Each structure stands twice: as C-alpha cells, then as structure tokens.
C-alpha cells in the first residue's frame, strides 16, 4: 500500500527520540475484508521490514489457518511501526554485556505512529478488524479493559483516531466490528491459554461464516 510520503516522514521524525529501531509499514492485501492490527515489530520484523516473520509470525499463520485464512486474505499492520527496545544484561560472548529486548510501546510512541494506522484503516476499510493483544485493542477502541473478557467477541464500536486537535484521539463516526485476540506471542509465555485461543478462534470463524452466508 502506498502511503503519503509526508505521513511517513512525520512518523519517523516523531518516533526518533525514543529507543526504537526499524520501520515496518504493513503487508498483505489492501483490498482485504480483514485487517489485523498487531502491537509493534520484533527484532526480525524490524530488520526485514516485514510484519510477523519471526516466531510470533509462525504462530499467527497457524491461527490464520484455523480461520481458513492465509496472508493474501488479510492486511497486516500494527500500532507502532518501529521495534521498541530496552537494554538488558547478558553474558553472551561478544555482546559487550548487553542486548536489546522487546518492550511494550509507550503512549507517545503510539501517538507518533497513530496517523499511519488511521490512514491504513481508512484505505482498507475492513469489514472486520482483528486486534492482536491489549495494546492494539486499547489503541483501536479506547477501552482499557483486559482483553481476556472479550476474546473472540465481535464488538461493534467507533474506533479511535487522531483528531484535528493533534495529539488527541477522537472516535470515528463509522462503527467497525473489532475482535480482540491474544497477541500470538502470548502463548509462548503462558502455554495454558491455548484453550482460550482455540475457543476465541472458533468464535471468529463462526462470525466469518455468518458474514459469508449473508453474502
Ligand atoms: N508483534 C507485532 O505486533 N508485530 C510483528 O510484526 C511482530 C510481533
């Protein structure tokens, strides 16, 4: 998808003061009915400029397969386009005693890239938005609740976008169906959620089948 150059330049400039690296715009079919919104790139994604190509990407593909979808059926993007990192200690040889670890993006970083996401949502105009994880769910809906209460539920909601008064979000006029799922990486830290994941995917699949049946 082509994005206006000034939008990209502005996003890069605004994220520059923070500890981030790389820049990933998004990937997939801009005509897709389904848009997937992740959190921020990880190490592999930041290096290659392609979303979800690391370990979380393998898990995402597995979950898409359960939904009978592949990457050509969706447009994948994220809340923040650069990898937020923090320095942590390591004993690994040749590392100089420290390495970069992923961290959650902060609100300023999220705002720095907010207009990119707004633009992509408007262009793709999806019939379903899948929010992967709490960061994406809160950015899209403004809701701070835990996503575990809403997994796989299709929520009809306005979505948050940057208003004319810069650096503030307003609600979109349009109502979008947004469905929260756990971020694919979550299962690596807590394998017990696998059952919840499968249940949430069944709910999404049933929804997609209902939409398809209606034509
Ligand atoms: N997590 C994300 O949100 N996006 C990626 O591309 C990889 C991990």
Which consecutive residue ranges, at least 5 long each, have pLDDT under 50? Answer: none
CATH top level?
Alpha Beta
Quick check: average pLDDT?
96
Number of helices: 8
How would you spell out the order of helices and strands? HEEEHHEEEHHEHEEHH
**Number of DSSP-assigned strands:** 9
Organism: Halobacillus yeomjeoni
Domain Uracil-DNA glycosylase-like: 25-198
GO molecular function: 4 iron, 4 sulfur cluster binding; deaminated base DNA N-glycosylase activity; metal ion binding
Protein name: Uracil-DNA glycosylase
Structure in words:
By secondary structure, the protein is α/β, with parallel strands linked by helices. It has one domain: 3-Layer(aba) Sandwich (Uracil-DNA Glycosylase, subunit E). Helix content is 37%, strand content 24%. It has eight helices and nine strands. The chain has helices at residues 5-15, 43-48, 55-66, 107-112, 114-124, 134-141, 186-189, 194-214; strands at 20-21, 27-28, 34-38, 74-78, 83-89, 98-102, 128-132, 155-162, 169-181. Strands 2-4-3-7-9-8 form a six-stranded mixed beta sheet. The longest helix is centred in the C-terminal third of the chain and has 21 residues, at 194-214. The radius of gyration is 17 Å and the shape is globular. The model has no long low-confidence stretch (mean pLDDT 96). The structure holds uracil (URA). Uracil (URA) binds at residues 38-42, 45, 51-52, 56, 78. The site of uracil has 10 residues, from loops. This is Uracil-DNA glycosylase. It comes from Halobacillus yeomjeoni. One of its GO terms (molecular function) is metal ion binding. InterPro entries: UDG_Type-4/5, Uracil-DNA_glycosylase-like, Uracil-DNA_glycosylase-like_sf. Keywords: 4Fe-4S, DNA damage, DNA repair, Hydrolase, Iron, Iron-sulfur, Metal-binding.
């Amino acid at each position: 998808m082509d994005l206006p150059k000034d939008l990209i330049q502005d996003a890069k400039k605004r994220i520059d003061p923070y500890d981030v690296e790389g820049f990933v715009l998004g990937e997939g079919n801009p005509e897709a009915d389904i848009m997937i919104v992740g959190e921020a790139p990880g190490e592999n994604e930041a290096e290659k400029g392609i979303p979800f190509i690391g370990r979380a990407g393998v898990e995402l593909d597995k979950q898409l397969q359960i939904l009978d979808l592949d990457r050509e059926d969706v447009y994948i993007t994220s809340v923040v386009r650069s990898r937020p990192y923090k320095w942590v200690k390591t004993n690994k040889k040749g590392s100089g005693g420290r390495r970069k670890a992923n961290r959650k993006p902060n609100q300023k970083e999220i705002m720095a890239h907010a207009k990119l996401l707004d633009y992509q949502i408007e262009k793709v105009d999806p019939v379903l938005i899948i929010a992967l994880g709490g960061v994406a769910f809160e950015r899209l809906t403004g809701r701070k609740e835990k996503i575990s209460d809403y997994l796989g539920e299709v929520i009809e909601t306005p979505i948050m976008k940057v208003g004319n008064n810069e650096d503030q979000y307003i609600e979109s006029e349009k109502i979008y169906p947004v469905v929260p799922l756990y971020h694919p990486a979550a299962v690596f830290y807590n394998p017990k959620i696998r059952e919840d994941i499968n249940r949430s995917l069944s709910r999404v699949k049933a929804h997609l089948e209902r939409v398809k049946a209606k034509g």
